[in-house]
Design goal:
The structure is a single chain. The chain has 137 residues and is mostly helical. The chain has one domain. Helices cover 67% and strands 0% of the residues. It has six helices and no strands. The longest helix is centred in the middle third of the chain and has 21 residues.
Length: 137
């Protein structure tokens, strides 16, 4: 295992622990956040604000560096175009998130529970990945 893989594993593990500790692996948290007319649960907003804060700090650090420590260059997206595939993807993602109560990260972390809901969601998600790869570009 090289340094990049080790760092990626450690960062992924920290991310997974954060999702578990914050309760974001529980679909009821997501559904509670989206239920603004009922018993609204604002805890997901605090998790999002925390994530945005961590990103903002890491972006500031990135701005002061010429290149990453373990990679030849930064991998920053340059496409700023809002096109049909992006909008359709965002709608599908949001619909799946709202209906299932999971987004990909928390769903993968939740796989350890072997819950039928999680297995079904991850199966559907992986099926979507495969279908996307099979679509003509």
């Amino acid at each position: 295992m090289n340094k990049q893989h080790l760092i990626a594993f450690i960062v992924g593990l920290i991310f997974a622990l954060g999702l578990g500790i914050s309760g974001m692996t529980q679909p009821s948290k997501v559904i509670g956040f989206l239920d603004i007319t009922g018993d609204w649960d604002p805890s997901l907003a605090f998790v999002m604000v925390g994530a945005i804060g961590v990103h903002a700090l890491s972006y500031l650090v990135k701005q002061k560096r010429e290149k990453p420590i373990f990679a030849p260059d930064f991998s920053i997206p340059t496409n700023t175009q809002l096109d049909k595939p992006l909008i359709i993807g965002a709608v599908l993602f949001g619909t799946g998130w709202g209906l299932g109560g999971f987004c990909p990260g928390p769903a993968l972390v939740s796989l350890v529970s072997l819950s039928s809901e999680v297995l079904l969601f991850c199966g559907g998600m992986i099926s979507g990945f495969i279908c996307y790869k099979l679509l003509p570009k």
